[in-house]
Design brief:
The chain is α/β, with parallel strands linked by helices and about 290 residues long. About 35% of the residues lie in helices and about 25% in strands. The strands form two sheets. Strands 3-2-1-4-5-8-9-10-11-12 form a ten-stranded mixed sheet, sandwiched between helices.
């Protein structure tokens, strides 16, 4: 039976304080009319960026029992969305989850969280890169940042990224299996004061780009916010370029709003003030199609 409300299996960690992962994914997608069914990979008192002495409960040993119960209920999902995974074993669990719950007209989104700013996260090694590279083959959409794209392609982090190399990376990532590749945090070579999100759709072989002003700050959870708004937009029936535009606009607005209040960056962006904006129609768009 078709779900009355689009249903999303969200496989992420849960931090009690600090806006990231499930604490931003659930409100964003709920505001967009989606039912979020969390499959938590770990529970933390705070996220790990900027906080010390946080508590951490690894749920790897409980994930399979959780999944088996869902199987017994014959749950059906319109979207499966995975993000930060803490171990090779969790990657294998997610891969098996996708195989078990896959159905037609379903969206599978993998955010291959590995690192940022040209560096691998401290808890990860080469095996995580390899296994994440295997997981993306099951995805319809992947959303790596520039660092993660470099690791997945076994390329050095580029000091400069010209349009020709960017297109090559998009196509090579698509060759790993996903129909749509979206690279975030791409420096816009047309302007030092802008950054961009660039997407390639293998089905129609089109490349889309949405730029936004660069703001000199760094907040946790921005990738989760972007991908959640993107998924909600796509499940509402928006085209890929419109969904990119909506997600970039929402994230940019959230960052600008938070930056103006001079809040501690480790607490994340103030999405609570902006959730209503996710229901507004797109009035103007700024996407471009690259030749």
């Amino acid at each position: 039976m078709q779900n009355i409300i689009p249903r999303i299996a969200a496989i992420h960690d849960l931090s009690g304080f600090g806006r990231c992962s499930l604490t931003v994914i659930i409100p964003i997608l709920s505001a967009m009319g989606m039912q979020v069914c969390p499959l938590p990979t770990a529970v933390l008192s705070t996220h790990t960026g900027g906080f010390e002495n946080y508590t951490f409960v690894d749920l790897t040993d409980h994930m399979q029992d959780y999944i088996e119960h869902w199987k017994s209920l014959d749950l059906r999902f319109d979207c499966i969305y995975s993000g930060f995974l803490g171990s090779v074993r969790q990657i294998a669990i997610v891969g098996n989850f996708i195989k078990a719950f896959r159905k037609q007209k379903q969206l599978v989104v993998v955010d291959p969280v590995l690192g940022d700013d040209g560096k691998l996260y401290d808890t990860f090694g080469e095996e995580m890169i390899q296994k994440m590279g295997e997981l993306v083959q099951f995805a319809d959409i992947i959303t790596p940042n520039m660092t993660e794209a470099a690791f997945l392609l076994n390329e050095p982090y580029p000091e400069n990224m010209d349009e020709s190399k960017l297109k090559s990376w998009l196509l090579r990532l698509a060759d790993k299996g996903p129909n749509t590749v979206i690279i975030t945090s791409v420096p816009d070579h047309m302007s030092e004061n802008k950054t961009a999100v660039v997407a390639y759709n293998r089905k129609d072989q089109k490349i889309w780009k949405v730029s936004c002003d660069y703001i000199p700050t760094d907040y946790p959870g921005t990738g989760d916010i972007f991908t959640s708004a993107l998924i909600g937009s796509l499940l509402q029936g928006d085209s890929l370029p419109i969904a990119l535009d909506r997600a970039v606009q929402f994230l940019s607005m959230a960052i600008r709003s938070t930056f103006g209040y001079q809040c501690p960056t480790r607490e994340g962006v103030l999405i609570e003030r902006l959730l209503e904006n996710l229901k507004a129609p797109i009035i103007s768009s700024s996407y471009q199609m690259l030749e």
